[in-house]
Amino acid sequence: MDKERKLLQQTVAIIAIIPVAVGLYGVLFGQALTGDTVSVSAESYFRFLSGILLGIGLCFWSTVPGIEVKTNRFRILTLLVVVGGLGRLVGLFMTGLPSFFMIGGLFLELIVTPVLCLWQTRVANRYADAYGVA
């Protein structure tokens, strides 16, 4: 069980680098990555959403120590990511195919994160069974 827990911790720590890095970049540089010129308000909103992405990544990192007992936090974070991914999916159907990186984000949001949540639940349940905690 400890080996699986450590593997889950390592996986979450590595995957959370993505929202932390992308969110931090968005906060610092705004729309510069896309090269699009947008209004000051749109730029502000982009930086706000980038800050939320950064925060979600940091919160996922906060689950790594003691991941086997942080099920509620992990599930709330997963819900936020999946809802965001569903929003991106709606946009895909309404406006067309986004860039390769956005498709990658969609994959992380709607497939990888829910799988990690199921894995975290498995580890938490095994921990509860082994140590008699609920």
UniProtKB/TrEMBL annotation:
Tell me the domain of life: Bacteria
Q: Which UniProt keywords apply?
A: Membrane, Transmembrane, Transmembrane helix
Indicate what this protein is called per its UniProt record. Answer: DUF4345 domain-containing protein
Q: What Pfam families is this protein classified in?
A: DUF4345 (PF14248)
Transmembrane stretches, start-end: 12-33, 45-64, 76-94, 100-119
What is the organism of origin for this protein? Microvirga puerhi
